[in-house]
Amino acid sequence: RTTPWPTCCITRRGSGRRRSGSSTPTPEPCSTRSRTPPAAGSTASASSVASFTRRISSRSSSCASTRRTGRSCTASRRTPRATSAAGSTPAYADCNAVSPQTAQAVSEVIQGAGASFIDAGIIGPGPGTREKPTRFYVSGPDAAVMEALAGPHIDVINMGSDIGNASAIKMCYAAVTKGTWTLHTAALLAAEALGVTDNLHDEIEFSRPKDFAEMERMVPRMPLDAGRWIGEMHEIAHTLEGTGVTPNFHKGAADVFELLVKTPIAQETRQTVDQSRTLKQALAIYAEQLPGGSKT
Prior knowledge:
Strand content: 5-15%
Oligomer: single chain
Helix content: 40-55%
């Protein structure tokens, strides 16, 4: 296709650091570099699209915006200066995991600079890393621009012209998946602290074997992404609060990630993680971060 490729806003892995003495995540700068095929205006090949989208997906994380005040992420604040200097206003796609309210605030800054804004939410791992395609949800008046990414490994799902729709589906989906994983972690960690880990594991494995299998798969890996998911939990809380639903579940999820990011496992990566570490071993490590440590 010859559709112009959009500029994409993606935050660096590890966003959600906290300032010393502050409960607000420290913003990490977003990338505003225009990702274009090797030859400007050329037809996008399957390989160039795959390479382009792998870079987006592998680095996508929670947008470093300040909640409640409605301030836009760092990249969106820089964009008016960048577009003015370049004399160009390409479509700007924000692919970060943010609330619809944050997406709307960012769009106002981008549109104020004369560029069109595309709200985007990515669900799934990097394109081409599994049999099912990664799904890019997009919305906004110019969302069709993102259809240039569609291919065997990417489904582009247009949610209509309303900015915030794509972020809404991303937030609600992550509220279920990551929210469930943090609930599992919190309950299992409490059992560890109370000295009833073996009994609880036996009961869950007996009565809910599928749930226990998911716990064994995910709970030991949670610290690997804890740092960048703290901000995402706050954005989910912001999303729910805006609808009148309690935000406290996911504020609690952020607290769980705050604890996990302090563990030595958080220094590992998806590539270097100890694959032999068991659920019980992980919980024992997590419990060391609790006040007074674990009973076991």
